[in-house]
Predict the structure.
Amino acid sequence: MSAVPAEEFVAELRALAPRYWDSHPFHLRMHAGQLSKHELQAWAANRWYYQRCIAQKDAAILSNCPLPEIRRQWRERIIWHDGTQPGEGGAENWIRLAEAVGLTREEVLDERHVLPGTRFAVDAYVNFARTQPWVVGIASGLTEMFSGALMRKRLAALREQYPWIAEEGFAYFTNRIQAVAGEGRATLDIVVEHSLTREQQLAAVAALSFKCDVLRAVLDAVDYYSGKGKP
């Protein structure tokens, strides 16, 4: 089956925007200032598990990719999350946010608050990256196309609605907002260039849909745990 034109393919990917987790009830309550400190802690602790697995996911994609030019580009993502030395990187900044909402570093790192639903969804995502073709794995990360606006909105909401959170806790978002726009464009370019058949294009769309499901599953778990979600 012949591939559709790039513009049509990109439109199919962007059409998944309503499935992104920005419209999840938990995020809506967060932005409205309706979360308790306990709920923010549950969110931070569970989102930590996702954050700490991102570098593993990216390493799995890199290990499947035979193209050195793509590997050179993709390994920068691992460095962004892990840093080049202890105390640096996106994962470290997420721990600082968790501390700013009242958790200790110890309880974040030992994952005592990570819910089974969160663990199941995130582990499935890492396994997906390990077992799928590298282009499909990269396509799953195209949620970057949707995340920049959400991060800006969330950062503003957290500052306004939860003024007790120390400003140093927001380093993850302030740094990530700057990075995600460029990464999103680069990721889309890779997927469009290397999805050469219609089957590959459809696999990329399915991968992005799967990633949206993973993200929403994490929030479903936290939402249900908070007592405000539906069984």
The radius of gyration is 18 Å. The first helix runs from residue 6 to 14. The chain has one domain: 6-225.
